[in-house]
Amino acid sequence: MRIFLSSLLLMLQVFIGCKEESTRFRLVDPDYSGVTFSNTLVESDTFNALKFEYIYNGAGVGIADFNND
Question: Could you tell me the pTM of the whole model?
Answer without folding.
Answer: 0.33
